[in-house]
Each structure stands twice: as structure tokens, then as C-alpha cells.
Amino acid sequence: MMASPPDTSKSSKLERYNSYLLRRVSSAKLIAASSHLLFRATLLAALILIFLFLLHYPPLLLSSSHYSSSSSHSNHRSLLSSGSYGGGNWERDVRRSAAPRRSDGLSVLVTGAVGFVGTHCSLALKRRGDGVVGLDNFNAYYDPALKRSRQALLSSHGVLVLEADINDGALLAKLFDVVPFSHVLHLAAQAGVRYATRNPQSYVASNVAGLVSLFEVAAKHADPQPAIVWASSSSVYGLNTEAPFSESHRTDRPASLYAATKKAGEAIAHTYNHIYGLSITGLRFFTVYGPWGRPDMAYFSFTKSILSGKPITLFRMPDGTAVQRDFTYIDDVVKGCLGALNTAKKSTGVPGGGKKRGPAQLRVYNLGNTSPVPVAEMVSILEHLLGKKAKKNVVTLPQNGDVPFTHANVSLAKKDFGYRPTTDLATGLRKFVKWYVEYYGVQTPKVVNKDAGEEEKEEEGAAASA
């Protein structure tokens, strides 16, 4: 009988299986080695990026109290620890400035007090009998000498302004220990749209970190918690094309970093209102102008250039249409700020950051003039008031954060606290130019004056309001 051939099928299967296992193991080893290599490469790349970031942008990685763009206080230590503030005499001065002169008066901490809007609001509050303490870091975004002049003006009316940064949480806490402020008017911010492309960190430090610093102290340390009114901006409307701009319009398409930080501020305000019961009102300002204004604003810089014979740059849209702004006179904005303070309800949170007692007030309002004007028309008014023609360079609006137009719908502010802007651009610019030539001692080809009847009416109005 012939023997059967050996069965090799099992051994072949075993060999194929062993070969398969060998390939799997080899593949797994290769994948593991690749993963380790990829992880190390990623880690190395991250370390290189961090190094480059530290090299070029060190301020963002410092503590928020350390960084203050162009501030005279670059030291991260609180001014309390330096001995500059906090003694008995200092506390007495703070209490004196914060004390209202009328029985139902407010006690208001004004941040950004020697800024343009801050100065006017502080004066208006003090004149009507409210207590006011100011806070400002006197940074060099524009001429600090102008800020010192505003400080002197406030001091002459009994308003104490502390030179400090809003990121100094220890100092803020001390202020609320010394004075139970009923309200905070938070106007401190890094302003300007175009400057954000050159110094973006300053916007994060002031407009985001600074806002959080204030909200933290107000929510968790102040007793009682104050009601807060703060400056947002019409810039939050960004690329919105609906007009006039309404508080219900979308604000999720900012055209500049400045606008983005203000939009972030509104989101942060919602958070602190929701969690801690802070009463918060945001005000969206529309191109504020007037005496004691900001030198970086067009009406101010154009005045200086026209008088000195230097050219000015006017923007137009690619299709040739004019750039327009809803210019709002400072006195109208001040009335809006005071109206918001007057109608702000008490916060509902518990000092120390405990559970709030109930929903707290959260509001946002436009404060504008409701009448957009082409920037070229503003220049024509200045030419008439100054008696001198401007040398104009007209160029297409660059993509640097500026928007083609702004137009405020103020019906909500009108309904809630009677906001009604009354100053047209020609009247407001006349008052600005009069202040400008007096403050800087400038000789103009044309005397800027009202007629006697207008002067008498204004004096009578001032006397009546006093």
C-alpha cells in the first residue's frame, strides 16, 4: 500500500500566520517609533514657537498687573506695597473726594478719569453734588501733558485722581475698603482703531484684563457690590451694514482688534452679571468730540494740521462714496452717562462672590447723535471756523480696521433714561475750536466767537443749571 503524501496545509497556514504576526509587530513598532518622533518634533516646534513668542511679545506672558502699555507704572508690585498709597492721610483724602454733598448723591469711582470722557463726566458728577474719586494710569498713548491739565482742572473742583492702573487689584480692593462706592463709571481703556495694529498687547491688557480686574474686585471684594456703567464702543458693530445701528443688531464681525476687545468686554460683562449678580450697563459711544478731546481723533488732528499748513488725509470708499461718522458732542454723551448711572439698579450678588440673590440688571445702549456726517463736511466746517483752507490728500479707505460709516439708533436710551442729543456738528466744532485756540494759545486768521446774543443765552443757561 502506497503511503499518503504529507499534509503541508497546516504548516503553510502556520507560516503565513507567523509572517502576518511578524508584519503586525514590525508595523506596530514603526508606528510607535513614528509617534514618538512626531511627538518630539511637535514638542520641539512648540518650544521654538514659545521662545519666539517670548522674544517678540513678552508682555502678554507677564502678570496683568505688570503690564501697562506706555504707563508710568511698569512695576508689577501694587502701589500699596510701595508705600505710595494707603496711609491715613491718603484714606482721608479719598473719603473726602468720594463723599456726596447732597443727601441722595452717588459715590462714584471713575476709571480713566483724566481721559476725554472721564474728565467731563467727573466734573458733571461733582458739580451736581455726587462724590467722585478718579483713577488713571496717565499712559503716553497721547500727550500726557494734556492729561495733567485735565487733572489740574478736576483738582480745582475737588476731585482726587489717583495715578494707578486698573490691573492693580490690591489697590482697587483697598479703595473699596476705604469707600463703599455705590457706582463705578469704568471708562479706562486703550482707545484707537489703527493703533491696535502696532501695539495689540495694550488692548488686551487694558480692555480685557483690566475689565476682569475691576469686575473681580467689584464682585468678590466690594461690600456692597457697586452698580457698574462702562464704556463699550460703536466699533462692536464692525461689518454690520444695517442702519441705523441698533442694540439688537449682530456684533459678531468686528473689523479691528479694538472692536474685538470691546465685544469681548460685553461677553465678560454678561458672565459676571450671570454668575455674581453685578448690575452692569454698557455704553456704545459714537465718535465723541469736543473741548479737552483726544489728539488722535480726526477733528483734533485736522485742526492742528490745518493751522500749521500740513496736509490731512481724507478717506473715501473704493466706489467713491464718502466715509461718514455719527459725530456726538461730549455734553450729550455726558448726559447719557449720567442717565445710565441714575437708572442703574443695585447689584444682587453677595460680597465674597457667593450665590446671587436674584437676577441683576444687564443693559447695553447706543449713545450717538443719530445724524451721520461725511468727514469731508466736518473738514469744511473746520476750514470755516479757522479761516484757513486744508491741504487734502484723498485716498481709498485702507483695510486697517476703519469702517465706512456709523449711524446710531438711540431710541432705547431715550426710552429708558431720556437721552436726547441736541448739539449739531457745526455748533460742537465751534466750541471745540474756541477751546483749542485758547488752550494752545494759537493765533488764527479768523476770530472764533459767537454773537453777543448767543453768549448771553449760554451764560444764562449755565447760571440756571448751577
TrEMBL record:
It comes from the Eukaryota. Belongs to the NAD(P)-dependent epimerase/dehydratase family. Gene3D superfamilies: NAD(P)-binding Rossmann-like Domain. The keyword Transmembrane applies. GO terms for molecular function: UDP-glucuronate 4-epimerase activity. Keywords: Isomerase, Membrane, NAD, Transmembrane, Transmembrane helix. This is UDP-glucuronate 4-epimerase. It is found in: Golgi apparatus, Golgi stack membrane. One of its GO terms (cellular component) is Golgi cisterna membrane. InterPro entries: Epimerase_deHydtase, NAD(P)-bd_dom_sf. Pfam families: Epimerase. It is a multi-pass membrane protein. It catalyses: UDP-alpha-D-glucuronate = UDP-alpha-D-galacturonate. Residues 108-345 form the NAD-dependent epimerase/dehydratase domain. The chain crosses the membrane at residues 37-57. It comes from Ensete ventricosum. Its EC number is 5.1.3.6.
